[in-house]
Amino acid sequence: MIMSNQISSKRFLAHFCDSNRRDKKFCFILGAGASRSSGIPTGSELAKIWFDEVREMLTETELNEWIQKESIDELNLAAHYPKIYDKRFELSMKDGYAFLEKQMESKEPSCGYAFLAWILSETVNNIVITPNFDSLTEDALFIYTQKKPLVVGHEYLAQFINPNTARPLIVKIHRDIFFSPKSSQGEIGKMADGFVDGLRSIFKYYTPVVIGYGGNDGSLMGFLGQIESIEGKIFWCYREADGMPDDNILSLVEKHSGRIVSIKSFDDLLIQIGDKLGISRLDNVVLDLAQKRAEKYKVQIEKIKNIEDRNTDTEKALSNIMERGFEKDWLYYILLAYNEKDLKKSEAIYKEAIDRLPGSPQVFGAYAIFLSNEKKDMSEAEKYYKLSLEADPKNANNLGNYANFLKNEKKDMSEAEKYYKLSLEADAKHANNLGNYANFLSNEKKDMSEAEKYYKLSLEADAKHANNL
Hints:
8 strands; alpha/beta; eight-stranded parallel sheet; 22 helices
């Protein structure tokens, strides 16, 4: 039987993604059910684990007395989560924190959190409110986007809740896992005053979408029951497999003229929202971000290698690091060849690298420098400079080095300037290229005003670059 305030997930999706109103904003209230597919037990599952452990710890008489005193319903342990937590860890609450931390250690956000992260970072629906302690939402934002959220993980930080922020905001009303999370009956029975004021301000502008929350704490449920009005009503999503929400939830939804929405799961709903919003595959985003970080790391290592007065201990350390448990990539070969004193052996290393890593712009560029500076073979050097730029036309290192080659060896000032400019288009903050172009402007073009401009830019890029200084 369908209730009067019940709508399908299809209708909810159409409402969520309707963009006719510019001031329409949703926030997400995420309960433990949202973390289930990420491998974190729900409140119901934790209550069952702890109840079984309490049963093992107590005598039969002690157990029965406790059950009777606290009116524990063994058929609905989730409703007694805080009472069971208190009993299980009454001798040491720190053991309770440690247990919860262990449950959340090394857990990766599910695909639903990937789509949630995109929504939080790319739309106006940028707020999550949760009684959960885990870091799945902020982890997903780090993995799938480059937006850093404001995480309010303690009531002392509640003053920083700003409903008008453009940054993703995560409000953890029972605290973060590392800030003595609240699980006991006395702690979660009432919401901290700071959070009350912050949430009240949020719900003036945001319509809450509740997912995976069973309403078994007094704090958030109490607040939602007491607040007079919520912008845009409230949408309470429940899992079909779990059945209709209890009477407390239904009464709350009715109070706010809201709607209850049947869904398959948190992941299913977020995937469908993602589709409606036109989100593309996010695994490519992860790979691209990881690749960029890895390449940036390698380039920084290579720059250290090229510092003329670098410490010999650093040189040895770099060589050792690159040989430990890692595939032989372009950086491995370049460092190996650079540190080899025998020119024949060094050239053999470059040729092995070219054979094993065909088309690597970094290897081509490094070999071109070797051919020019060590072998004095300018024809072959230019060949490999050109190959490096065919492989990656926007590699700032190779563009800048080729510009130096054209200026110093070919004496072709027109082409040299062209490649200096291309190198700075590729990376406007490349200190070496800025400094070399400043030298070119001063020494070759005699344009002192422009030269000074680029010297200053080079020092803005790297204030401690000795050559440029």
